[in-house]
Amino acid sequence: MKNLLQWLVRLYPRPWLERYEAEFRVLLDDIDPKWSDLLDMMKEGTTMRLRTGLTATVLAFGVIAAAIAALVLSLTPRPYESHAIVTIRSTYFRDYPVPDQMRTLAQRVTSRDFLRRVINEFNLYPNLRSSGETERVIEKVRKGIRISSQFPEPARAVTQVSFDYSDPQLAKSMTDALLTRLIDENIRLQESERVTHGDTFEKAALWSTAELISTSSIGQRPLGPRPTFVIALALVEGSQLGLIFALLRRRSSSPGQSTSALCI
Amino acid sequence: MLDPSLLVLSSLADGDKHGYAIMVDIDGFAGAHLGPGTLYGAITRLEERGWIRPLDAKERRRPYRITAQGRKHLKEQLSVLERAVEIGLDRLRRV
């Protein structure tokens, strides 16, 4: 029994052992051990381990993760989203390839020249522009644009155009500009096809027409997790990571484990 | 039911003792057996709070001494307990 109690001493955390191990082992030699002492040591040793290194590591990881989440949230303010819906349909040809047309239109709407022009017009990302990072601004604006289409019929597209920006009014103005560009480019596309197809197109007048279903909205915060939720989640996930880290570190630094490993 | 820290402080109130002596003493005056884990858990906490301090070890056994702060804390706690005991006993007598 005494040997078992002596063995259980390894349950205690290393910093505690450095201070108390010698005298604690003498006490274990002195006493007339009982089974309850065995349970008592297991309980106290485990509690002490949890109370010292593990808890501190878990808490530290959790707090650091939450702080990083808070920092990232503060540095990247959630943008406002403005969106509008337009439908484009061909009333003349039932098999008019509207999906192909929409792909071409989307490319034209996000063309470099057009974006450069609207960036200047609306003074988007002024800080980046003043530092001469024009290409980065164009990429950022391009990322903020979403043009997604659904095709309920072969010759009909319902397209949502949206733009994300840190200013709600500018988000709306930009969405308006994108819509105008989309409609203009639709007409231009057909004019170029008129030249290609000549007489056939003359009969059709306009192969497809654009109709605005809902005008662009003032930018609104997109639905998503609240910042407090994100920070709380980071705290929990960080704590879990801290727990894994603490357990792995303990395992690798445990003298008992190293000895076993050497014996093998 | 009795707080191990309070028992250890009570044991050290009449002089320095090492772990085993504290354990025997508590068994004698309180009839409570403190396991070695519980005893050293209490010693650790009391030392952290500055209520006891370790002395030089003699034959690998380290005696502990109650500090002035520890004595003050013990007095306060025992006063609370004394009042609780008095009231409890009084109420029992009335029933």
Could you explain how this protein is built, in words?
Chain A has 264 residues and is of the alpha+beta class. Chain A has eleven helices and four strands. Chain A has helices at 2-8, 14-30, 35-75, 98-109, 112-122, 126-130, 134-144, 168-197, 199-204, 227-253, 255-263; strands spanning 80-89, 145-153, 156-165, 209-214. In chain A, α4 (98-109) packs across α8 (168-197) and α5 crosses α7 (134-144). The radius of gyration of chain A is 34 Å and the shape is elongated. With 95 residues, chain B is mainly α. Chain B contains four helices and two strands, in the order αααββα. Chain B has helices at 4-12, 19-30, 36-48, 68-94; strands at 52-54, 64-66. Chain B has a two-stranded antiparallel sheet with strand order 1-2. In chain B, α1 (4-12) packs across α2 and α1 crosses α3 (36-48). Chain B is elongated, with a radius of gyration of 15 Å. Chain B starts with a helix and ends with a helix. The A-B interface holds A 5, 16, 20, 22-24, 26-28, 30-31, 34, 36-37, 39-45, 47-48 and B 18-20, 23, 33, 35-41, 43-44, 57, 60-62.
